[in-house]
Amino acid sequence: MFLQRLNPSYKAVTIIVFIIFLATIFEPVTPLLFLIWTFVVTFLFGGVSLKKYLLYFTPFIIFALGMLWTSIAFADTPNNPSDTISLFGTSLPKESVLTALALSLRVLNVAALSLMFVFTTNIVHFILSMMQQLKLPPRIAYGVLAGYRFLPMLKDELMIIHDAHRIRGVNQAKTMREKWQNYKRYLIPLLASAIRKAERTAMAMESKGFTGDKSRSFYRQFSIQKQDFIFSIIMLIGFTISYLISYQLG
What we know:
Keywords: Membrane, Transmembrane, Transmembrane helix. By secondary structure, the protein is mainly alpha-helical. The chain has eight helices and two strands, in the order αααββααααα.
């Protein structure tokens, strides 16, 4: 898909730029239209599963609704009756309602743009791209990659420790306090295993000549191509159209 083929670093910078643009908007129409545009781009060019997307997007919807309700509920009492909106039989300041909508939609836009990046980007490619395009020091980059690779290994190690305790007849936890005691019991062997894996990884990297030199070569090369600029243009068109419609509506 189109979004998966983009340069990860360029895509991240582009998304951050539009998040900054949205931070300067204090009316609800532009964020609402741009949110719709982001959904269209994500599903049309990203091949993202709708069910998976909604699973991750739902918490942000709940958070945005909470922010909307809080901002409206604690709004100041309107002084001028002509500048109010009647909502559920209550007169509320029009400016406060519009600001609350703008803030809530801004949260949803940040979530939508972030999920667009997360669902269409390979984390390994992203780190390699940051080293090549954004000059991230290799020591930091490969440390992050090693930690990322360790996460599923630690999960498997935790299951092994858990099964080993069961074989030895350790009572299974039923209450929260017993579960907490179990996790404390698992912590030391899990930490020892992680240290051994980290030492072996460090020795393997040193034996293969890794020095953290920034001038190192890369087997997998990343570059900024024409399709990356097309992505920026697509997002800019959506933002510009959203802003112009909002301007026309006053």
